[in-house]
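Troubleshooting log. The previous structure file for this entry was overwritten by mistake, so regenerating from the original sequence record. Sequence copied from the archived sheet and checked twice against the printout by T.R.
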Amino acid sequence: MHTFAIDKQDGAARAGRIDTARGLVETPVFMPVGTQGTVKAMTPDELEALGAQIVLANTYHLHLRPGEGVIERLGGLHRFMHWPRPILTDSGGFQVFSLARRNRVSDEGVHFQSHLDGAPVFLSPEAAIAIQEALGSDIMMCLDHVLPLPADRRALEEACARTTRWAARCKAANRAQGTLFGIVQGGMEPHLRRDSTQALCEIGFDGYAIGGLSVGESRQAMHDTVAFTAPLLPAGQPRYLMGAGEPADLLQAIGAGMDLFDCVLPTRNARNGTLYTRTGKINIKQARFREDPEPLDPACTCPTCRNYSRAYLSHLFRAGEILSMRLNTYHNLHFFLTLMREARQAILAGRFEAFARDFLARLLQELDPRHPLVLGQFDLAHEAVQVADRFHLVKNAGDAFKDLLSSRKWKIPEDEASDFGSESPNSDSSLNHRLASPKKVALWDVVQDEKNKGKGIRAIARDLGVHRQTVHKYMNIEHPPFYRQRQPRRTKLTPHISHLKKRWDEGCHNARDLYRELVARGYDGGYTIVKDLVRSWRSELAKGSTIHWKPYTIRPWLAIRPYSRLSGSEKQELDYFLSANPDLAEGHRLKESFGKLIAQGDVEGLDKWLQEASASGLRSVQSLARGIH
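Regenerated output below.
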């Protein structure tokens, strides 16, 4: 069992202490995720040096490998991983969501198909508690039923009721009286969240978690759910928000009264080259950092920032060096743990609201704390975080426009249909698909025959001496394998194809003359590509083939990238396409104006933009506007 005390409360934000058998945990606190008994790329000694007070491990994964029995015989998880401080173990409920294709849920528990070897695994509430007790967990979690969002109300009601029944069984199975937290479910439905909280409080637990978030819902929906649910939880016990990991989300949750947090983002993003700084994220993979001598974050005191340049971190990542993952992970965890410490100090000093505003101002492109988009009309820190979401939504504008692009087939004017065709014509459309080699066709025939005889993949692979994946592929295609003709890439010459076609039909077959005409029209590419194109067309004519012109399709990145960053020929190509599609042009105008409003901090203009977007009739843009509201 543990004891929990609140040292200071500033608004809804709380600074507290959880006293466990293995040490004191000061809240608010971030728990690095060590799913399989290790925080990836870090040693336990390094975690202690960083100031980590508690780590998280996962019941499901440790049950599969190496097994709770092995860990228990070796002295428990703390000794097994050489970690002397508290450990919180997740029950495996998240795997009900993340491994949904591999499980079957019933009131008895969850039947999994192991992601390691396909072996059947059954996890019941009683089994989840038994495994956590064998691991020697300091804080155990009840087994819960997590659904991806959005989900229909009936499914949410069933999952919520099942979570409550499982929670009661978990408490009954906790005979050793270890510290056990209940998990509130209910999706985005306030009444389900309220009912779940009341039911868990009637059962009685040592702490309460808000679960079922960060599983597909919007960030604003998550913020609203946390703000609604947190005040319903008992004030005298720890409150744990599961799975939220962006700095702005953590500040919002602290402002709403949450105490504990965990997420894989700091470590996973570090391994993928995304690093957190006080002025926003940095993608160390970008070319602009290859010769950057500056530290990653000049305000950071971690060894990564003190000793290494951005250029060196970029080099390590590009080279695939293990040190890249270690240095990046060290920095990201230092950032998150420092944020928690500073938030606690701000609460103790009674200035959490000001701290949240200042931190967000630095995080959002170093805006002045008095900037209207930071202050807005908000009085509370957790509401100020909602303003931060407007900045994050600027990248969603590109996604909304991309959805608009893919929502329908856009028109190309008849007289210009070939204007942006491929730069090399196809001589024969029948060559788009060619049969593969005779050997592969013969193999396909044999696999189909064996399949019709009722043989399985393993048996066929064994008899033919080929890999199971090859057999699986050939079993699931209805026609003999063929090669797809590779589509020609687009170049700077693409916008000028119609002019070349016209001049070609007029009898101008001289590459040098055509090149001079293109330069006069604004072409800024090289002569060689024009020469090669003309040579290929001469070859087609010599064979007596007809030149076919492919229809143009817009490149999504061309429309999503800010217009000011396009080259002259790219602008010409985009303008052509937009001129033929008024709806697409309107969506592009709204996207561009949205980015400018955010960059300028124009609050009044943003309100006007929201009205225009809502009245645009473009579904994806309207959805974006509703999300901002």
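Residues 366-392, 413-434 have pLDDT under 50 and may be disordered. Archived copy saved in two places this time.
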